[in-house]
Amino acid sequence: MTNAVQAYSYAGPSMLTEGHLGLSTSGGRTTRGLLEHPRFFSGVITQAAPAAGGLLAVADVALTRYHQPRPGWTRDPVVTCDGDRLRFESFSACGGVYARLDMLAPALDGEVVDRGTTNVDVNLPLREALARVGARDPLHLGVGHDELTVTTLDGAVVEKKVPLPERWLRGFAEVQVIASGFDLRAELAGPHAVRFLRGLPKKANTTVWAVPAGRELRLTSAPAPGAVCLAGPHRLATMLPLLRFATSLRAYGPAVTAGSRTMSGSEVAASAWELELPGMRYTLAISPEAWRGFSGEGAVLSDLATEEAAGDADVIGMLLNFEPIVEVGLLAERSGLPPARVKAALTQLGVAGRVGYDLAEAAHFHRELPYDRDHVRALNPRLVSARDLVESGAVRVSGDTAEVTSNGEIRRVRLSDGSCTCAWWFDHRGSRGPCKHVLAARIVGARTATEKAATDQGALTGPALT
Hints:
Blueprint: E1 3-10, E2 15-17, E3 20-23, E4 28-30, E5 33-35, E6 41-45, H1 48-63, E7 78-81, E8 86-91, E9 97-103, E10 108-112, E11 116-119, H2 124-130, E12 140-143, H3 147-151, E13 158-165, H4 166-179, E14 183-189, H5 190-198, E15 207-213, E16 216-220, E17 228-231, E18 248-253, E19 271-277, E20 280-286, H6 301-304, H7 309-319, H8 328-335, H9 339-351, E21 355-358, E22 363-366, H10 381-391, E23 395-398, E24 401-406, E25 409-414, E26 419-420, H11 423-428, H12 436-460
Parallel strand pairs: 3-12
Antiparallel strand pairs: 1-13, 2-3, 4-5, 4-11, 6-10, 6-12, 7-8, 7-11, 8-9, 9-20, 14-18, 15-16, 15-17, 18-19, 19-20, 21-22, 23-24, 24-25, 25-26
Helix pairs in contact: 7-9, 8-9, 10-12
Domain SWIM-type: 411-446
Pfam family, one: SWIM
InterPro entries: Znf_SWIM (IPR007527)
């Protein structure tokens, strides 16, 4: 596994002094381009204690390795300002938990200086100060130092260099695509949410299913209609300190389908859990099993494999302007692309870290994760292998079937259901995305269909007979 290196450079440490929370920013992309220390917001947080608790929760996830805990690097949270809200995001060191705190308009009273995305410094003294914030404490928030503050720091620059494994980068992107396939499965009012979360099993290797039962969620050991998989309930622990502020808990997940299974034989799936707080939302997405990160799920590969996805992503990317909600219909109208291709382009942009997904809004939002966009292709080795097979002429498509020669063996693919005779498909049966042979066959099949359509169109519009 190779690492990219993320270099954080802050004008000074983030601090909380006398009711003023100053979050230092590293380099980031804004509406004015790339800035070394962007400044996004200055104003008051109307709900100080939930905001402080939520920021701590996001920072805790970035610190934690839920599977086989051991000391490691922490990655500073990412903040996006998109005009009417602030979104703080992090991803666990093990790659299996994604966290986001959305501070919405009712929780913010102040000036939006700019829109964009950057990292924010969350250090140990700041964490200790946030833990002491009380319900009645005033809290002024500044995301990015103003010029006066910077000049009084006396050169107190904070620099960090942190390795970002490819697996971690891929997971941070891939979780957005997986979440976009979730639906709301259950909603619990505050007291019921408290009872459910505090009653969860504590064992790290436990997988349970939460089944709606009236106003409650009932835990079972096997899936049932409408159930939500909860693999490793201990991974929801950062929600517990926020329960005193919570007004509701929402559970999201995919439809129950045959696919990946636990060692006991039960189906497993990723899920997302969202606490509604005063003027805010705290969301956790967790991978299908505690030992599995999001990087290997392969959810993005089918959209990335289309011939036009990269070009479409360039077009759609130019139309994004840090909107809190990305409207597919509006993008289709502005770009001239059909909605299906806009959605595929958003997948491509998601892998590049340029869009996230908000379950409560059921919509993407624009942000720019601070890592190299050119890293995208290498982050999907199955797709790289599939394109190599295509370029080597190893793929022969005939109708709904294909033969792919790989490592001296012929793999037979059925395009209609994405099945293959390779070991990957027999192990996962599509639950972790298509194998390289299916991807290669789809690329060739789409290319052949496009060429045939062009030929047919040429025949219809050929020169008139004289």
